[in-house]
Design brief:
It comes from Anser cygnoides (Swan goose). By secondary structure, the chain is of the alpha/beta class. Among the domains are: 1-50, no CATH class; 76-218 and 258-303, Alpha-Beta Complex (Protein-Tyrosine Phosphatase, Chain A). The chain has 22 helices and nine strands. It has a five-stranded mixed β-sheet, covered by helices on one side. The chain has a two-stranded antiparallel ribbon with strand order 1-2. Strands 3-4 form a two-stranded antiparallel ribbon. β5 (134-138) and β6 form a beta hairpin. α9 (251-270) packs across α10 (286-298), α10 (286-298) runs antiparallel to α11 (305-317) and α13 packs antiparallel against α14. The protein is globular. It starts with 9 loop residues before the first helix and ends with a helix. The relative contact order is 0.12.
Length: 496
Amino acid sequence: MPALACSWDVATRREQGWGLQRGGRWGRSQLSPCAPAPIFALLQALSSVDSVMMMYPFFYRPQDLRLEEGWHLFPLEQYFQQIAAQTSQWRLSDLNRDFTTCPTYPADVIVPAAVSDDTLRRAARFRQGGRFPVLSYYHPRNGTVLLRSSQPLTGPNRKRCPEDEVLLGTVLDEGERGFIIDTRSAQAAKQARMTGGGTEPKSSYPQWKRLHRPLERGRPLQESFIKLVEACNDASLSMDRWLSRLESCRWLSHVKAALSTACLAAQCLDREEASVLVHGAEGTDTTLLVTALAQVILDPGCRTVVGFQGLLEREWIEAGHPFHLRCARSAYSHARLKQEAPLFLLFLDCVWQLSRQFPFSLEFGESLLLTLFDNAYASDYGTFLCNNEKERCLCKVKENTHSLWAWLNQPEEKKKYLNPLYSHNPLVIWPSVEPQSIQLWQGLFFRWIRPSQYLDEARAEMQRLVEGNEAPAKESAGSRLSRSLSDPAARTENER
């Protein structure tokens, strides 16, 4: 993650005309990329810190926050207790407390109660990086579960692991079926066997049916992001040329594919009443994209400000998404590192699509998503530092940096991110994934190109009008507006 080596805070830098430049580095826009060589070299040197512990969050000390605030807002134990109140089939295991079983998992994981820790350790050796299947979400309506893992290491000889088979077999009762959603193409999964990876053989996992839903990651996704940013920054484009470049970058296709796959997972859980295991190769990128999006679709709790933060903590930060590698630079970087990929940005874009199609169902607005994007690439806070919990423990991130959640949850700060039209919706929100329903996130991709003054004024006026009404009137107006403004296809799905 790029360091903020300067001593003044983010807000001050922005007020003084600074912004994210090449590689996510801070610098005045007039200095980059056309700055005099010595100045530009100095900016690069100041922002290219090799040691995580020398990055700006380790030196940022706001007066109104304490270091310990925010780091323990979303303990997995609390999330597990919600599940334990509904079923006894799952338990909280600390088998990874020393991070030796899986270096990219947190210390505690939720696993089947009938499976011993010794069996889990053996199953972990059969999964890439030790990422054995763990519970991601328990669907309270029917008891189905969403699991995530990495690919099995079957190799060209189709090796088996009895412990892994027992683990997945325990999840399903006799006669039940489950689905494995592989975020690779069938061809890519087949090729993975040549390098030791592979898929779960049907003969060894008879109750599980594999579905391939390929999602791009790595270089293809990064190149798509770069092309989109370059097109958005080109003010000389004609209409035809703009539409051509927008199509050729394929970013909206990635958004559609991610939403479609998340809807498939949610549909298996909610409508087919079948449990789901999601994995790709490593299980740290597209896997988390799908499991997190599926929960936003299914669970109204994940659509609140606090619930969404808890989701990010469980499904992205603690689950081992390598933020340090994926967000090392920006679309303007000269260095095209193969480990870069804006997966987290793609997730935020998909959530924005949901908020646009269901403008009353998410408690937070676009401003929160933009703030999260900014902090993933350059932050005063340590929340998105490092690649996993093991690294954060070694660097003592929680002891020496402030939590982003502590800042966001301050009453006056939190108020900025609330959706004034929010009305609790207990239903599953089924988004339309038709091409006509997927739109470019202008609030992000055009934010530095055109002023947001009028949109900000409109939001402020909306807030004033809503606060001026009594609560019952607000809910009644919200229901009427929801019926008239929601996406027709999405509304039809929601009413089924």
